[in-house]
What we know:
Layout: H1 3-9, E1 12-17, H2 22-38, E2 41-46, H3 49-52, H4 60-101, H5 108-117, H6 134-148, E3 156-159, E4 162-165, H7 175-189
Parallel strand pairs: 1-2
Antiparallel strand pairs: 1-3, 3-4
Helix pairs in contact: 2-7, 4-5
Amino acid sequence: MDPADSGRADSKVTLWLDPVCPFSWNTARWLRTVAEKTGVGVDWRLMSLAVLNEGRELPAPQQARMRDSQQVGRLMAAIVREKGDAGWVAAYFAFGERYFDRSEPLDDSLVADVLTAVGARATTAAAVSDGSLDELVRRGHEAGQDALGETGGSPILRIDGHAFFGPVLTALPDVDAAIGLFDAVATLAAVPQFAQLQRPRAAA
């Protein structure tokens, strides 16, 4: 193993994300690549844009996204309850391939495919309408907000106790760039005086 990989593997990394956030899909795939190539362990956690935007007046497209956020959050919470954290992570990536990469709508067919992909037997498509699961989603969401220390959207990344919103990625970088990005983000995260860095998305 590369000595640098060994050092990365010692990092404590947590990612909070909303499954329907397109930018988080890029971040999640980036972090999965880093984990696969370097041995970094990632603690994947659920947050909710629907909870974040409660009480806000939003344009119709965003309202539709918030409905998806609520329903998919419930589905993932139900899968956590049945299959544990590994189950929901597998479900998330199965969901993302359909929802983002194939632009499939959130319907019974998509939900059934996700449940089949992770071997869920006790969880059914009815989970998307089960309001009793909202508290599980809310607890995960609030944990992410507490880690950040202020209100923030998806994703929230914490490395060795230092949390921030992002990184926001417009696409998935190649492997070498992915690992370099992780090192850069970890370096910035470790500097307590660092607060923010942003560039126009058109520059990506």
